[in-house]
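Progress against Task 2.4 (sequence-to-structure conversion) is shown through the following example record, which the project officer requested during the mid-term review.
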Amino acid sequence: MDSVPATNLQANFENTKAYQWLQANAARFSFEMSFPKGNTQGVSYEPWHWRFVGDSNSLETFYKARNLKPTNTTN
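Structure tokens generated for the chain above:
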């Protein structure tokens, strides 16, 4: 049985106790939000999307991806 209620993946996740806990504790467990507001990749804000950056490979991959610019694939 799940003890956590289902949550739609929406920006209103930031109003939940789970989000508040992540904001306060994620870094302690080597997690960071993948797509914060105003991210350079141009991805919509996703407060539910967190990524592990606790080892050198994860951290390097995350920061390289964070600095990527969106490309226009339509001509």
